Amino acid sequence: MSLMCTSSGLLFRLRIRHSDNTKLKSLLNSEGSLLAFSGFPDKDASAAGAIASNIWTSFQKSGQYSLDDGKLNCVLVECKLGKIAITKVANLLLCLCAKETVSYGMLKTKIEAMAAYLEEPLSQVASS
Amino acid sequence: MTEELKTYLLKLMGTVEGLHAIAITDRDGVVIVKVTGQMAPDPALRPPFLSVFGVMAEQASKMGIGSNKRIINYYSTYQTVQVNHHPLLLHFIADKNANTGLILELENELADVLKEINKVVGMM
């Protein structure tokens, strides 16, 4: 069994590359339920995950219809107190929360690197 | 005034390579003013697409990190940069390879325009 197939293995992979600027990394299923997260324990983590999933689904659907462009690769959300990046890994969503001082480029690069790192093991889980 | 505004927006649009359209809407996605290039995807400049940002900005404001300011989407062929300038929404639709930083910089250039439109909207 690969490291990813255990919850501790999943958390280990999510904790890797944690920096001071990243508050939270979470992995959600397509319904927005929280599967795993790494970062400060927060009662709002599951609520934020559900909202992140809703944002992703809405923009994906509107893009499919209006842009003739089915594939949404990445969403960056900026709020007053922080930034959030969302991307798809296998059939799951990866959500990364960062401080408001983190630049868009760094956040996008970081979530792309995380997604590439998690793609293969999560694909194995998804196909099993 | 509308023609002057459109000319100004077209001029701004020309400063960023790959920027196809700029639209200013209300929070329901109703277009107040828009300028488009030849490559602009037409359905993306209609309320069904533009209104999604208004709803999602409200949702994002409930994530516990303050009110929403911007949402950037990267699709396979396009990118959208949408700015929440309450009560107005600013939308940029560009090629996926367009420089996002330059598009975000246009927000500052449009600050005066948005202030003027805000005044008009406030009077109604």
From TrEMBL, chain A:
Sequence ranges assigned to domain Roadblock/LAMTOR2 in this UniProt record: 27-96
Gene3D superfamilies in UniProt: Dynein light chain 2a, cytoplasmic
InterPro entries (alphabetical): LAMTOR2-like (IPR037587), Roadblock/LAMTOR2_dom (IPR004942)
One Pfam family from the record: Robl_LC7
CC per GO annotation: cytoplasm
GO molecular function, one term: guanyl-nucleotide exchange factor activity
GO annotation terms (biological process): positive regulation of TOR signaling
Family listed: Belongs to the GAMAD family.
Protein name per UniProt: Roadblock/LAMTOR2 domain-containing protein
Annotated organism of origin: Lymnaea stagnalis
TrEMBL record, chain B:
SUPFAM superfamilies according to UniProt: Roadblock/LC7 domain
Signal peptide: none
GO CC annotations, alphabetized: Ragulator complex
Any single biological process term in GO: positive regulation of TOR signaling
InterPro entries per UniProt: LAMTOR3
Domain of life: Eukaryota
Family: Belongs to the LAMTOR3 family.
UniProt protein name: Uncharacterized protein
Organism: Lymnaea stagnalis
